[in-house]
Write a structure and sequence with these properties.
With about 350 residues, this protein is mainly alpha-helical. It is built from 13 helices and three strands. Helix 2 runs parallel beside helix 6, helix 2 runs antiparallel to helix 9 and helix 7 packs across helix 9.
Length: about 350
């Protein structure tokens, strides 16, 4: 029975990896042959970033069972720290791919530190209280970034909250982050290939954690906290593990996202972005890794797809209607029963084939 469950889990994981790799190959083939529209090409890196964000949030909401509404805060920490790292290393590391990797690592590490700072006190709360505190954290980060000024010159990095003039940059230096104006003059380093690799890394981290002993402990706490603690499972330790891992992945995704644009504003990472990422998780199915990937890719590209149908004035309204219809369809008992019957038939056919073999 254990071997059958392990085989089923391995097959499911391989299918998930196969979907991601197949999508990457199809996009590359189409780009080399037919050609891709500029709007579609412009969405490839944001799609990769949002897929990683959905995977990371699903680790908290779906696997850990906690509601976080400040996930965009970790993304913003990774975004702006990644931009600072990339700008500061522009002379020391001229090779763009290496600089991008360093920027994503810096963004991931600092977001992880933020995850520890927030997670240690916050994860003692539950339910609505946890959601409110994480929401407050996201808003605090956004407001801090709106008054933060960062510059770089030969002496190194300069920080201030008073204004760009207070940085006192030497000749040849430049401001990287300018308070409410955000990060400007960013050298674009992000590539679709880097985004694809980041998605694979995030997928590997999440799936390995979920299928590990620690992952089973996290899910045990989600299902019945009292029973799990009664057998020696530490709630704070394992929930913090999921929370910090989620923050690290969000930081890397934020760095990739920011380095795809010439400028990034702090207000981009507000409450609405956190809700958007939560929508990806809910639409794909809470705890469903493959569903999060598909939902994030579909909903990120949907507004641009509607724009191509000359629905500029109505595209967000159509987007909302489509979102509501998809939510209703995925939560329809008859449809879910129909899909379960299909899966049951496929499982039965597979067992019959293995028996005959």
């Amino acid at each position: 029975m254990k071997e059958k469950s392990s085989h089923k889990r391995l097959t499911s994981n391989l299918i998930t990896y196969g979907i991601v790799v197949a999508a990457f190959v199809i996009v590359q083939v189409l780009g080399a042959t037919v050609g891709l529209s500029s709007s579609f090409q412009g969405q490839l890196i944001p799609i990769c970033s949002y897929i990683v964000m959905a995977l990371s949030l699903n680790l908290v909401v779906g696997i850990s069972g906690e509601l976080s509404l400040g996930h965009a805060g970790f993304m913003s920490v990774g975004a702006f720290s990644g931009v600072i790292a990339a700008a500061a290393l522009q002379q020391a590391v001229p090779f763009a791919p290496v600089r991008l990797v360093i920027a994503m690592i810096v963004g991931a590490l600092l977001a992880g530190v933020a995850g520890v700072i927030v997670g240690v006190p916050v994860l003692r709360l539950r339910g609505d209280y946890l959601a409110i505190v994480t929401l407050a954290f996201g808003e605090i980060i956004r407001n801090v970034l709106q008054v933060l000024y960062v510059g770089v010159d030969e002496a190194g990095l300069h920080f201030s909250t008073k204004g760009e003039a207070a940085l006192q940059l030497a000749e040849g230096g430049r401001a990287i982050i300018k308070g409410p104006m955000g990060a400007t003059g960013i050298t674009k380093l992000a590539t679709f290939t880097a985004g694809f690799i980041l998605v694979l890394i995030a997928l590997t981290v999440v799936l390995n954690l979920v299928n590990s002993r620690s992952g089973r402990a996290i899910m045990a706490l989600r299902d019945n906290r009292i029973a799990a603690e009664s057998v020696g499972i530490g709630a704070t330790k394992y929930k913090l593990m999921a929370f910090v891992t989620s923050a690290v992945l969000a930081g890397a995704a934020g760095a990739l996202y920011a380095l795809n644009y010439s400028s990034v504003l702090p207000k981009k990472f507000d409450f609405n972005t956190s809700i958007l990422i939560l929508v990806f998780v809910v639409l794909g199915g809470i705890g469903n890794i493959r569903g999060s990937i598909i939902a994030a890719a579909f909903l990120t590209f949907l507004p641009e797809l509607l724009r191509s149908f000359n629905l500029d004035k109505w595209r967000m309204l159509v987007y909302a209607v489509v979102l509501i219809l998809v939510m209703l369809a995925t939560n329809n008992p008859q449809l879910r029963g129909f899909l379960d019957r299909i899966r049951g038939k496929r499982k039965q056919e597979g067992e019959e084939e293995s028996t005959h073999a």
